[in-house]
Amino acid sequence: MATSLPEFASFDAENRENIGEIRWQRWFMRFENLLIALDIKDKKRKRALLLYYIGESTLNIFETLPETGTEDDYDEACQALNEHFKPRKNTSFEIFKFRKTNQLVDETLDQYHVRLVQKAKYCEFSNLDTEIKAQIELGTNSKQLRRYAFRKPKLTLSELLDYGRTLETVEEDASGIEQNMNETPMKDIHAVRRNPAATTPKKICFFCGCSHM
């Protein structure tokens, strides 16, 4: 009995702006998780599903690759694709791109940190934490964080991230409080308008000493 295959996005090999090992590895990791979820262990079936799900553009590439193995050789097929999408490293250019990576306007410090880690993957830095810390100091949107880092040159990357998260939390809390303070209590205004007599001052009678409207 035929069974329908679950939907799964193919790998877009025609996307020339972002072809590389990272994007391929992410897709391949998701594909292998799919195989685990479907409980597929037979290598012939795994290879067939791989060639089905990679999509037409990637299949066209696969058919031109050498040493892709036989129809039941899943590992050989994976290795051929991994080698094809492995980037041709230019360390100097990768470092240049890393140095140009600044924090985006709506990007949190943690998101910026993750992006720097990804950018640094092919830079071959001898001390990754030191390089990332230096780039955060230069590329952060927070003047407070930058000045704090410059005042404490022995600060570690972990300590810098902790302080930056604290600044973000304080800024978020303060903005929320200020927004609430600036909001006009409309229900109080309406109550005053409905009862103008409540704010009308009473006059003291000169003759009897009593209060009159």
TrEMBL record:
Paraneoplastic antigen Ma-like C-terminal domain span: 15-118
Domain of life of the organism encoding this protein: Eukaryota
InterPro entries: PNMA_C
PANTHER family hit by this protein: ANK_REP_REGION DOMAIN-CONTAINING PROTEIN-RELATED (PTHR33198), RETROTRANSPOSON GAG DOMAIN-CONTAINING PROTEIN (PTHR33198:SF20)
Full protein name: Paraneoplastic antigen Ma-like C-terminal domain-containing protein
Organism: Paramuricea clavata (Red gorgonian)
